């Protein structure tokens, strides 16, 4: 599992800068865990980036999980019924 730490808000401006990374992750052959401990805000662009990677990996039977989600990002994911992406504990280091 590849762990990706994001340490900034996931708004439209940030996602525009992170697009190349998300495209690379979407083409990956690894399960991905996004560690969102440094994320205080997510908007529709951020959710879109996560769902983009999720859909691409699922076509290859791979997964996306989110860990260390709190505050507004956690509330938004629950409102959008995306809590199935949440990992129960700290990410595995394997």
Number of helices: 3
Rg: 12 Å
Order of helices and strands: EHEHEH
Q: Tell me the CATH topology.
A: Transcription Regulator spoIIAA
Task: Report what the structure shows.
- The chain has 94 residues and is an alpha/beta fold.
- It has one domain (2-85): STAS domain (Transcription Regulator spoIIAA), CATH 3.30.750.24.
- The chain is 41% helix and 13% strand.
- The chain has 3 helices and 3 strands; from the N terminus they run βαβαβα.
- The protein has helices spanning 12-26, 44-58, 71-79, and strands at 2-5, 32-35, 64-67.
- α1 runs parallel beside α2 (44-58).
- The longest helix is centred in the N-terminal third of the chain and has 15 residues, at 12-26.
- The model is unreliable at 89-94 (pLDDT under 50).
Give a short summary of the structure.
The protein is built from 3 helices and 3 strands, in the order βαβαβα.
Topology at a glance:
Blueprint: E1 2-5, H1 12-26, E2 32-35, H2 44-58, E3 64-67, H3 71-79
Parallel strand pairs: 1-2, 2-3
List keywords for this structure.
94 residues; alpha/beta; Transcription Regulator spoIIAA
């Amino acid at each position: 599992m590849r762990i990706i730490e994001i340490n900034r808000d996931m708004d439209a401006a940030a996602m525009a800068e992170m697009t190349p990374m998300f495209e690379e992750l979407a083409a990956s052959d690894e399960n991905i865990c996004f560690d969102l401990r440094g994320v205080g805000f997510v908007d529709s662009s951020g959710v879109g980036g996560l769902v983009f990677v999720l859909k691409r990996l699922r076509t290859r039977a791979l997964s996306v999980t989110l860990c260390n989600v709190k505050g507004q990002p956690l509330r938004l994911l629950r409102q959008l019924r995306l809590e199935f992406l949440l990992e129960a504990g700290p990410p595995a280091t394997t």
